[in-house]
## 1
Amino acid sequence: MEKIISDLSHHIRLNKGFFLWMGFLGLALIACLYAYIQQLSYGLGVTGMRDVVSWGLYISNFVFFVASSLIGMLISAVLGLIGMKWVHPITRIAETIAVAFAAVAGLVIVMDMGRPERLAYVFMYARFQSPILWDVTVITTYFVISFLLLLLPMIPDLAVLYKRFGNLPGWLKPVYKALSLNWCNLPEQNRIIRRSIYILLILIIPAALSIHTVTSWLFAFTTRSGWDSTIFGPYFVSGAFVAGTAAVIIAMFFFRKNYKLQDYLTDLHFNNMGKVLVLVAFVYLYFNINEYLVPGYKLKRADAVHLRELMSGQFALIFWLVQVCGLLIPIIMMLFRRMRKPLPLTIISAAVLLGAWFKRYLIVIPTMSHPFLPVQHVPENFKVYTPTLTEIAITLLSFILVLIIITLISKFFPVIPIVETANDKGLDPLKSIES
Amino acid sequence: MDENTVSNGNEQDPSKSSRRNFLKNIGLLGAGVTAGAAALYSGDIFEKKKAATGESRVLLTQDNKLVEVDSLEMKALATNPTKMMLEKGREGIPGKRWAMVIDLSKCRNARRCIAACQEAHQLKPEQYHLNTLQMQDNAETAPYHMPKNCQHCDNPPCVAVCPVDATYKRGDGIVLIDNERCIGCRFCMAACPYSARIFQWTTPKDAGKHNGEAYNVELNVPQKLGTISKCLFSADRCRDEKLPYCVSACPNGVYYFGDENEDAVTNGTTKETLRLSKLLRDNGAYQLMPELGTKPRVYYLPPKNRLFPFEPSTD
């Protein structure tokens, strides 16, 4: 049992690797912040967006972020509530990813605003007819529930770590003391925490479905070809599970290697996560077929233009790379057990995650590029959208923020639940802290 | 019972009664003196004022009454012109339902409407509240030029999605934008099927020249960086009972503009006023993409019986 505690907490220390990594992220953050300051002072004109493609990288990145944050709900709530014990070591990784992506998704939307200083107007002059208001409401709710689901199950772990502090960084001691809320393993405390987590796990399911359904409605509530679809809600939700599962697998691989968690994140976990990814990818493939075949069969005029641009026009290269290398080939490969080993599965997941990002690009930009009426008498850069360097840097800024949040949470708190892991092995580390 | 007590008291103690009367008299005297002094004082001030100016002004109040006011009594109200125009701009012009008719058979792509519009609304050459598009419905039919502006829909998708009520539909049919309110999310641009909206991506035209000017919501100037702009049916001109900038500028008689409630539209070139319903009925008028249910307030007359050959635009 001592081994479990020290194995699961020995990564909590300030080492050279951590400083190097954070230093790198910090420098990158400063460089990208400079780009955002440029945008603040000169306006959104520093991006490649113009009157035709008026939503670009930022909005597609926002959709990707909301999508990736959905995984917290799939792993903890859906798989957890149906009694899958093997997800226990992965739940905290999933919640960390959920919290990081949900928090930064809100910032990404602010980055896209022409008048970010008027953010408060969204609350002052709130018009509930607008899906933007719904999105703000549900994303905030989802973030709060996810944050609580990260924090509450960690309380017993922090109590244990506080008790047997060992050689953890000294300044963490008051943090652990404060966050463990005087936990001393009383039956009453256990009852409260179990019930709270249970209620949160149920609440997070509708909240998670709402955030991505409402985000899909930002598009589906318009009449534009490519967005005017009744299946956008489930299509987005299933796509979100693909992106999130891939993100969790990549995170698992890095934590396993860097934090030496090979005994806890085993081949079994990768194998099972691979199966989950195959399942959700199949569901997503099914929705993709619906989304393209149904309008493709009828070929209404505007839909025909849209589909032609996607499949054989300006966006064909990205489209086929995303569909084939980001979805089809990964599905086929992951059907084989050998491909669900940690390293191959991580590489496949990286391809899937990259595909998932570009898929959002393909959902947003081609539809904007081809409005119903012809685009005439405008400069060339209005007709073809090319993201600028500033715009790419600001998009990278959001990824850097996510990485910083994930790094800080995973570095200073146990990545894998200690008490739960011990309990699963029939041990009870809490006995010792009962007072 | 009470009455008895009072009368008894009076009879029994006359001195009490006279004290009360005395106090009453003193009070009356005091009030009288104060009132008199006040009257004298204000009369004095009035006389002094009269002496100072002696002139009165005749003014027309908001409810159309003529009143006479001494010029000294007049004081300027401390107002915020932007706020006043914003409030007025939300209301619309009572009793009106503006409508536009565009006769495609007459459009020769002179683009004078566009120039007038861009001049009035401080727009750069690539920014269009109104654009003429070269259209061809299918390979067998003839191409034609189509001026396209905001359709001022009666069921406007842009207004529905605005999160802060910055863009709104007025009682007189005009869809406007409050750029003191707009947060620049561009959801309205995504929602508009007519691509009628533009965004101020970069510093607006002549931004320095118009610095500090009051914002006129019915003209949408000065244009503001990071906010939306679009055709306003020249709401400022409607208020002055004039035709919109584009309508007056057209040399070819393409545009008719008027009030649907009066059932009358006026041609901007010939100044001829016609019955709106008859014009639409007799000429096979149609709307852009009516199947979307947006209920546009702009009608098009088909490009038939053209008096000139079609010349393709350079773009």
## 2
Amino acid sequence: MTCHRIREKFPDFLIGDIDETTKMQIQGHLADCSTCREELESLSTIWTRLGVLPEERPSEALRSRFYTMLDAYKQVLEQEKPGPRLQTILSNGLERFWPRQPAFQFSLAMLLLVMGLTGGFLLRSTQPATAELTPLRQEMESMRTTLAMSLLDNQSASERLRGVSLSSQMKQPDSRLLETLIYTLENDSNPNVRLAAVDALYLFRDLPEVRQGLSRSLAKQTSPLVQVALIDLIVSIKEQRAIDALRSLIQDEKLDPLVKERAEQGLERLL
Amino acid sequence: MTDNQLMQEVRDGKVEKLAVLFERHHIRLYNFLLRLTGNRNISEDLVQEVFCRILKYRTTYRGTSTFSVWMYQIARNTHIDYLRKKKEELPLDEQWQEAPSPAPSLAEQTELKEDIALVQEALSRLPLKKREVLVLSRYQGLKYREIAELLGCHIGTVKAHVHRAVKDLRKIYTELSGEAVL
């Protein structure tokens, strides 16, 4: 074999994936050819040297992040599942009982209508059935919270936007979610996400921690769009505690003139 | 249960089985990304992203190639997307200085640590394509046939790349260490 053909086998030699015959051929060649011998030796040395890099272990946080993500994904899957399945059960059932003759179809429809009206009338007079639904509703809310929080933590801005919009659908968001939303408003790298967070927090404006968070985050905003949205919101909810924050914002020399104007108008309305 | 069987179950809706695949592979995957990026935090973020993508694209898993090959394909794309995003975010003048940073804590006083830092630095100076094939064959224990499948090229090309990569690494290493031993 020529030197060229022998050297083509070196990569196989390095990972030890080589049959006996080829190995013998290589060794035979190396015995006579010092250039190839030196070449393989030096390749092997660096190959071995690469072995000094130890295998490292990631932090425990990676595992817990993975399981949070997997749980959230499972919940979404389960939420989506009942829809089509219930539909198939219903349509299969209906098909079996639905009469073929139009006259019978009409009678059955009337019967169902009467039953529905009677049922509705009877139910209205008894206790409302909310008691059974409460735990179910609570469970849904907590699932939504988990999902919203994991979305807000996502690398992609569009996923975080989804997280904000999901949070805004909550009736009574818990304090962890509110904290995350305020954190997003203060620190998210994307102004669109921060803007969406302003809108979402507007819905929970009556909660003291939200009001406090809004005035605090005013100083941290850099995008004029977000600043204006935040000023408008603070003025509309008449948040007196934001007066100081507005004052120091106006004094900032680098402030966009339009934002400054808006802040001055807002301050007048608050005072 | 093999990786492929597990992934087929994940594909068919038993997503909780992904936990087993995570336990089997996340350390290897983390080390793969660590060799490419030289940064621990970024590598952890990328591992999380890889498993996110596995869930997202689970229905596209065909089982024709081994799970490892499929997983490394996703990992490779995740890493490339990360580099692209990083380029977009960095102002132009900083891009020129950008080189994958070796983990600084490794560079401590003892001889072994110096050696580790040297290898790490040499690896980080290798162009990405060569670094990938070298890491996959040397550290991830993938066969050349698997790497060829992963990269979508001929097995001969992979071998040529590995050969070239080791030679280039030897040159960089010699320059860095100032030794003429190799």
